[in-house]
Amino acid sequence: MKNTLIALDKSGSYRVYLTITTEMCEQARVIHGATSLAAAALGRTLTAAGLMGLMLKGDGDRLTVQFKGDGPAQEILACANAKGEVKGYIADPSVDLPYRSNGKLDVGGAIGAGTLTVIKDLGLREPYVGRIDLVSGEIAEDLTQYFAVSEQQPSSVALGVRFGEDGRVTQAGGMIIQVMPGASDECLQALDDMLFLMDSLTLLISDSQKALGGSPDQLALLNDLMQRIFGGLPEEYRPEVLDSREIRWLCDCSRERMAKALVSIGKKDLQTLIDEDGHAELNCHFCRKKYDFSKSELIELLDYAQN
Ligand code: ZN
Question: Which residue, 6, 14, 17, 16, is CA-closest to 188?
């Protein structure tokens, strides 16, 4: 189901990617049995990765967004491709910290000080790797910094995941605004003022849900949301939709891939596994699916292993 709009303002000064990812973030929370704090950190990262995936040009292009810090969450990793398929994990899904003084989940505290690394596989011999020191660990600020420093692309990133009383994700979404070359200063000023006064994205999504009532289709919701965010701008600086896309959770793990991973540990370690455990159980980091390999299957894999 399409849940993402890509739009360009009438003056050609900025492009905006806007998505509602409530379903994907809830799915990730359930798969990883994550606390609200962990689900917020993971959901923000998945949403951003999904949007960045849609910015890739080639069909086979893919990217990885990795937050690594000295906080209790340790690591959050998300992979996305140009089709909007996203998967990810958080090293410690049970991470929990007191709320910040402003009543928000302490995602920055969960990640701590560290680095953000973006790896883009664009089908070239070497992948592109960009790395920055974290600004706050709050994900959106770090990505804004990443775009400015590593991609020399002035951008503004907003991400949010909100939870209901029962702990389920009730609203989640993301927005990335990219300044275009030759942007009008007047437009950028209007945009800055707008962003400064803007309510949180999840609050705005909730307003759209209430305004449309029931279970409106995602595109109607997005158009309403777009209007709420940009409707106050002068006519010539309001965005016009160019395209609608889908961002969704998809893990592409398989038995074959897991077998390859086993083969890659080498003959010696495989033999140890056969002799000592008599079987192997592998978990996919992304979707937690279990893969069991029997002794005879492991013996077959030995033939494919190097040294
Ligand atoms: Zn998987």
Answer: 14
Ligand 1: centre distance to CA 53 (Å): 19
Q: Name every residue whose Cβ is closer than 8 Å to that of residue 66 and which is 6 or more positions away in sequence.
A: 75, 76, 77, 78, 116, 117, 118, 119
Task: Give the Å distance between the CA of 77 and the centre of ligand 1.
Answer: 13
d(CA 92, CA 154): 32
Strand pairing category for 114-121 and 62-69: antiparallel
Cα 90 to middle of ligand 1, angstroms: 14
Strands 290-293 and 128-133: unpaired
* C-alpha 207 – ligand 1 centre gap (Å): 35
**Residue indicated by tokens 């030995």:** 302
Q: How far is the CA of 76 from the centre of ligand 1 (A)?
A: 16
Residue 214: left if φ>0, alpha if ψ -120 to 50, beta else—which one? left
Q: Hey, which residues does 130 pair with through a beta bridge?
A: 118
The pTM of the whole model exceeds 0.90:
yes
What's the CA gap between 135 and 113, in Å, rounded? 8
- pLDDT tier, 305 (very low <50, low <70, confident <90, very high otherwise): confident
Across the range 174-197, mean pLDDT stands at 97
CA dihedral 182, 141, 84, 27 (to 10 degrees): -160
Measured in angstroms, how far is the CA atom of residue 160 from the centroid of ligand 1?
25
Closest C-alpha to 128, from 52, 44, 19, 75: 52
What is the Å distance from ligand 1's center to 258 Cα? 10
What distance in angstroms lies between residue 21's CA and the mean position of ligand 1's atoms? 19
pLDDT at 214 over 80: no
DSSP three-state, residue 72: coil
- Residue 230 C-alpha to ligand 1 middle, in angstroms? 38
**Rounded to the nearest whole angstrom, what is the distance from the C-alpha of residue 220 to the centroid of ligand 1?**
32
